[in-house]
Amino acid sequence: MAYRRAVIPALVGGVLLTALLWWAGASAQALHLQGTTDVLGGRAAADLQQWLTPWSYDPPDSVRFGAGVSGGTGETAGTDGGRYLDLYATALQIRFAAVFAFFVPGALLLVRRLPPVQGRMPAALLATWAWGLVAGTLAVTVSAPWLIASQGHGSYRFLPQLAGVISSGRQILVLTALVAAAATVCAACITAKGAGPLPQEIVPARAARLAASAGTAVVALSLVVLSYQSVAGALQTAFTGGGLLAEPGDLLRQWLLLGAWAGPADTPLGDWLLYRAADALLLVVVWWSLRRLPGLLTRATVPAMAVGAVCATVLGLLSSQVLRTVTDGAGMRWGLIYLSTGLGGGVPAALTWGLVAGVAAAVTLRVAVRRTQAADATPAVQDPARP
Question: 105 — phi, psi (to 5°)?
Fold first, then answer.
């Protein structure tokens, strides 16, 4: 699809995602009303408040406490407190602008290389949904320094604070990104009319399988090797230091580990295998997505494969989280809010390893396709002794 046709759906999705997050954050104040607590219940209202606060202009208690710090020489407490509140408002402005800025380029690439026509609509919808989660996570990451500074203690354990901020606000992103993805795909279906038949890459089955296996092996490195309890513990505690950038372990865990697991020493083997089924599902989703991706793309370029692998890893994470929630008997007793608490985690690590997996899959695909074409182009040499 041409850029002029793909840019409109990307802009529509970016505006809608930003507007939905702003509306969700503005609705956080309604959870403080007595009638809302009576209808939803105290636990549900508190969970929703935790979900919406990262997108709300209403400062949390930590920022209000920072705003109450007395000013320096010649400054009043109100002046100093106003600066903290201004920093918080600036962080939210950067956050909403970054959501739009990160979503539009990725959605533009997906709509152009994976247009929702000729049987591609489900794949385009799922990929755009996953990219919405990535855009929201990146926006939270970019705006995190201003948010930490607004709390009045940004110089204390900055990296652990940064890791905590990055992991916030992800549950509401799952819903808003799905709505924005649906709007993007619908707009893309409209703009694709009259564009004529779009090209579709012809990929040999063996080359596609090799590429999917290479990309899945990269993701498995994080999920199976680095996420093992002893390896993850050594990774989180290996880089220690002093000062502002001390204790980077929590941040490394956010960006490198897709899970956490240990051997079945303390649990029955059956329960351990059931819990590991979610990790196996993640790898299956990643492999199947990467296997189908080259044939769905109009052109299997390295950027398209990289973004597609990121989306595949995020979708695998969501699938594994849903399966783990369903198999956890405790979740059924607490209701839907508790069940959805674990959704949306691990997106930073999915972004890191998805990019590497996409590049590895693209390189493997090109090498395998060239070898296949070279083998097909080599003429058969006839034995001179045979007629």
Answer: -60, -40
| Average pLDDT estimate for 342-361 | 93
Is-contact 99 17, C-beta < 8 A? Answer: yes
Q: Specify whether the CB–CB gap between 18 and 99 falls below 8 A.
A: yes
- pLDDT at res. 381: 45
Position 262 scores a pLDDT of 85
Please check the confidence at residue 40 and state whether its pLDDT lies above 80: no
Alpha-carbon gap, residue 3 to 188, rounded angstroms = 11
Tokens of 180: 């924005």
Q: How many CB atoms lie within 10 A of CB 352?
A: 18
* Residues 199-219 pLDDT 10s: 777 888 899 999 999 999 999
Place of tokens 């406490």: 65
Q: Are 260 and 227 in contact (CB under 8 A)?
A: yes
- Torsion of the alpha carbons at 84, 88, 89 and 92, rounded to the nearest 10: 170
In this structure, what token pair is assigned to residue 50? 């935790």
Asked whether the predicted pLDDT for residue 72 surpasses 50, the reply is: no
Q: DSSP of 121-144, one letter per residue?
A: HHHHHHHHHHHHHHHHHHHHHHHH
Q: d(Cα 353, Cα 257) in Å, to the nearest integer?
A: 9
Locate 179 and state its tokens.
């709505």
Give me the half-sphere count of Cα atoms (radius 13 Å) on the Cβ side of residue 363. Answer: 8
Q: In degrees, to the nearest 5, what angle opens at C-alpha 332 toward C-alphas 275 and 178?
A: 80
Under the banding of pLDDT at 50, 70 and 90, the label for residue 196 is low
CB-facing half-sphere around the CA of 205: CA atoms within 13 A: 0
How many CB atoms neighbour CB 148 within 10 A? Answer: 22
Q: What is the pLDDT of residue 3?
A: 80
Query: 125 near 150, Cβ under 8 Å?
Result: no
Indicate the pTM of the whole model: 0.90
The answer to whether 337 and 179 have CB atoms below 8 angstroms apart is no
Q: How distant, in Å, are the alpha carbons of 206, 371, 374, 383 from that of 380?
A: 21, 16, 12, 10
Say what percent of the chain tops pLDDT 90.
47
Question: What's the chain's average pLDDT?
Answer: 85
d(CA 116, CA 189): 6
